[in-house]
Structures are given as C-alpha cells and as structure tokens.
Amino acid sequence: MEETKQQPLALRVCAELAGSFLLCFAIYAFSTWGSAVYGINIVFFALATGLAYAAVTAIFSRVSGGQLNPAITVASVLVSKTKILDGILYVIAQVIGAIAAGFAVVKLLPTSEQVAAKVWLTPAVNGFENGSVSYSLLTQYGITFSITLAIVVEIVASLIVVATAMSSLGDHDESSDRHVIAMGLAYGLATAISYPVTGAGLNPARSTGIALAAMNEGLTQNPLQQLWVFWISPVLAAAVVALVMIIAQMMTTPKVPAAADLPQTDADANADTLDDGEFFDQAASSDGDSAEKDVAEESKEAEVGNQQADSQGDADEGVERH
C-alpha cells in the first residue's frame, strides 16, 4: 500500500472531534425520538448504528483515519499505528465531541408534564440490571441482565469492532473504502449482539456523552454509576487485539541470522578472498623476485664458465712447457 501524506495533527484532532459529535448525535437521535416512532427494534438499531459509523467514517477517514472510538485509538497506539501524543489528543477530542452531542440532543427533546426526558433517554443510555434497555421487560419475569453478562457481552462485541478496525486500517492510519464498509458491518453486528443487554456501548466516548447529559434527568439508574463498565470492557478488548497482533507479528517476522551463525566455509572464503589491487601487487612482486633469481643464476653460470676456461688454459700451457 502506498504511503499517504499525514495531515497536520491539529486538523486530525479536529476531525476526530467533529466526527465524534456527528456520530454520537446521530446515535442519540435515533435512540431517543427514533425509538419513540419506530419502537425498540433491534434490527432498526443495528442497521442505523452500522450506517452511522460507516457514513461518518467515510467523511473523516481521509483526515484522521476516522477512529471515532477511544478503544480503537488505544489499540492503534499499542501496535504503533498511532503516536502516543496523537492518541491522547484523539481520545480527548472524541469524548468532548460525544459530550457536546449528548447535551445538544437532551436540550432538543420535547418534554411535558406527561412525557419527561427520561422517557426519551432510557433507550439511549448504556447500562445493565435496572439500567438495561430491557429492564422493564425482564422484571416481569423476575430476571435482569447481570454485570457479569454485561462485561462479557461488551468485551466480545468490542473485540469484533476493534479487530475489524485494526485489520482494515493501514500502517499509519490510512483508510480505504474497504475500511469504511468493514466498520459499518462490524458495528452493526456488535450492536445486534449487545443492544438487548447493555444498549450497545462499544464506544467509551458514546457511553460517556449521553451518561453526562442524562445524569440529572431522573432515570431509574444513574448511568454515571455504571459508566466504568463501558470504559473497561472496550479498552480491555483493545488490549487483547493489540497483544494478539504483536505476537503474530513476532512469529511471522523472519529471523535475521547473526554473523556467528553463518556457515564456516563462507567465512573462510571471505577471509581468503583478495581484492584486485592486492592480487596484482602480489603478482608483480612475484614476477620481480623471479627475474632477480634468473639474473643471479645467469651470473653464476657465467662465472663457472670463466673459471673452467681459465683452468683449461693453464693445463694447456703446462703441456707445452713439457
């Protein structure tokens, strides 16, 4: 994948803030007045949530990657797709955007003496037991969704979302059309799994925004008291996904052999190999030594020949005298 130029940090942070606002406003809207018109329908919520995430991700994915979720940002930081400072600023922006959306929706809700704000807000907040969206139905049969079930469901659903995000985002948060579609499908599936139990948190920023806006609206369960579950569960899922990715990368990265592990024959060959300059220097030196030896031998032979000639001459003179 060809690396794209990263946008300035300030622009990316603003994109996460604006994206979180639009996303959470949409979710809070169809969870409040949308549920009043269409009723609490799991198919409606799953489809609407998936479309909301896909649409907003498509808008801002080219700027910041369209993370829009602190859990995804945490996982991205842990696997080094996002820098630590960038990740911290992203999370702050995401939470601020969600809080602004929460208060905006609450202020826009039509209320009267007969219809209080809590009637609208119950399907929008995240909770379990008496804070669950299914509480009024389950109490007829003497049962509730426990905290254990809520944590397990949120972790499993968040695993789907975070794993999908990490597998479809590029090495430096680059996004693509495949990422947009994948995130829409992942959030839709995760919502279908978790909405009856917890109202489909999946996103700590989304849970925080509506919890703060609804804390004084007379709900059966104050959502702030259960908010910790909707931070711990997605972040834990993010850590699990990051750990699996790190281990998988370590197992698939080819090991570079150390110098000591190289075959001995190669080391010997490298040690015995001479460069061209050294070879010719040695060859020239050898030729020079051979030439000197030849000259010395010729001189020695000439001296021997002279000595033999002198000896023969002396012998001839002796014969003549006799």
Automatic annotation (TrEMBL):
Residues 290-303 have a biased composition (Basic and acidic residues). This is Glycerol transporter. PROSITE patterns: MIP. It is found in: Cell membrane. Residues 267-322 are annotated as: Disordered. Keywords: Cell membrane, Membrane, Transmembrane, Transmembrane helix, Transport. One of its GO terms (molecular function) is water channel activity. It comes from the Bacteria. The keyword Cytoplasm does not apply. It is a multi-pass membrane protein. Residues 313-322 have a biased composition (Acidic residues). Belongs to the MIP/aquaporin (TC 1.A.8) family. One of its GO terms (cellular component) is plasma membrane. The chain crosses the membrane at residues 9-30, 36-60, 88-109, 143-167, 179-197, 228-248. SUPFAM superfamilies: Aquaporin-like.
